[in-house]
Structures are given as structure tokens and as C-alpha cells.
Amino acid sequence: MKQTAEAAQVLGSTLEYAWFGDRATPHPLVLLHDSLGSVGTWKDFPERLAAATGHAVLAYSREGFGGSSKLSRARWRGYMHHEAETVLPAFLDAVGVKSPILFGHSDGATIALVAAGAHPGLTPGIVIEAPHVFVEPITLAGIDAAREVYRTTNLREKLTRYHPDPDAVFAAWTETWTAPYFKDWNVEEYVPRVRCPVLMIQGLQDEYGSAAQIEAIKAGRVDREVLMLDRCAHSPHRDRPEAVLKAAAEFVRRIA
User: Fold this and answer.
1) With CB atoms 3.0 to 4.6 Å apart as the test, which of 3, 116, 165, 197 could cross-link to 19 if both were Cys?
2) Which region holds residue 75: left if phi is over 0, alpha if psi is between -120 and 50, else beta?
3) For 129, phi and psi rounded to 5 degrees?
4) pLDDT at 110 over 60
């Protein structure tokens, strides 16, 4: 059951968050959204995840998204590093959460991976959907296609339901990822530092990334599970929710 939306003061910004399920359970799952996401864009998935795992779920909107503060500075090459290494631990401390299981999607998956690598004791395990550890041609082609969709369809109207300034949110994603300074962006250095179990979920029809991302993260480690899903694009929890919930519940039971 969703509890009242709340706000936390974190490093000078206000971040919105919401609990789902019994927040007293150990190892709550913390949801890290994608580049156009927020608390609201998860829709009913947090409640379903809490029911499937028996653990509380905590979703929050990063700065610049949803009901959180506007971006305090322009996006830069290291914005996901900053979110993972500095903002996420500060947010968890502000809301009193210890030893959470991180569940990230797209940008959020990268943030979860970097956080686990930068802070080995932060989490007992991470679930990452459609993670990025380097920039691929398919990513840039997908962003070009998304720009056309934004220009010609009602995508902007849909984003208005979740963000007060959808144009800023969309531009922050597309302009950063296609900028010349971002073309050699890479977080593979964090991969061998991740000591906790990892569940990776990838759609076979992902329009923004290939299985090469998953192969890079596996990196010879034993405790890294992979779930490749057919009939699934960039958002497995939307395209194949039952499969994702089942895999996540089994993973959480094993590690927690």
C-alpha cells in the first residue's frame, strides 16, 4: 500500500519520495528511475514489487525530475557518478535507510551499479534493468528516434503528467547523451569493484542498448545472474512485468 508522499532535504535540494509496503521490513528495495522517470512513472510497479518480495519499496525522484527540485546545474559528463557516489548515500541517510537492495532502470541501473562499486558495503545486492556502462551506436540512434517521437506525437503531453518542465527533462537526456564530450563516457572501471550479487535484466528488443552492456558487467564474476527477455524493449518492468517480478522476488529471497 502506498504511503503519503514525502520530501527530503538532500545536499541543498528537495527530493520527493514515497514508500510502498511496510517500511519496517529490513533491506527495503530502492527504485532508481530512468532518464525520463520519477516516482510517478513507476505507476503500480512499486506496489506489485513490494507484494512479490515481501519487502518495502522506496521510490524517489532525482533532482530535476517529478516533484523534486529543479536541476541546480547543467548536466555534465559525470552526473551519474555524482548521483551514485554522493547523492544516493546522502538521500538514504536523510530518510534513515540502511542496507537497501537497489533496483535501477536505465540511468538508474547505471547509478545502482556505480554505487555498489563505489560503496561496497552499501547494498547486499542490486537488480539492474537495461543498464549502460558505455555509449553504443544503438543508444544514439534510439535517442535520435526519440527526438522525432517527441516532436511528432503526444509524448510531451504524457511527460507533463510527471514533470513540471518536460522539455527540460527531455533535453537533459538527449543533449547530454549526444554531446561530443559524452561519446567516450564509460563506467566499466566500477564493474570489478561490485562485490554483491547482481541480477541483470535486458530486453532482446531494447532500442537503446545491446547485450554487449550485459557481457561487460558479467566480467567473469560468478554471482551475476542474467535474464534476457523476448518481446521486451527498454523497460522490462513495463513490457514483461510478471517475468521481472518473479525474477526479482527469487533474487531478493536468496540474498536477503
Assistant:
1) 3
2) beta
3) -100, 130
4) yes
* Any domain includes 32: yes
Sorted by sequence, the CB contacts under 8 Å of residue 65 that are 6+ apart come out as 33, 37, 38, 162, 163, 169
Q: Which residues contact 170 (CB under 8 A, 6 or more apart)?
A: 36, 150, 156, 159
Domain extent for 60: 6-134+186-255
Q: Give exposure, 104-118, as e/b (b: 16+ Cβ within 10 Å).
A: bbbbbbbbbbbbbbb
Mean pLDDT confidence for 121-127 = 97
CA distances from 256 to 3, 22, 115 (A): 23, 16, 19
Q: Which position has the grid cell 514515497? A: 18
Express each pLDDT in 204-226 by its tens digit: 999 999 999 999 999 767 689 99
How many structural domains does the chain have? 1
Q: What is the pLDDT of residues 166-200, one digit of tens each?
A: 999 999 999 999 999 999 999 999 999 999 999 99
Cα separation, 20 vs 94, in Å, equals 18
Would you state the cell numbers that stand for residue 98, as one nine-digit string?
A: 540502511
* Position 5 confidence tier, pLDDT thresholds 50, 70, 90: confident
User: Are the beta carbons of 129 and 235 closer than 8 angstroms?
Assistant: yes
Chain-wide mean pLDDT for the chain?
A: 96
Q: What does the alpha-carbon distance between residue 175 and residue 183 come to, in Å, rounded to a whole number?
A: 12
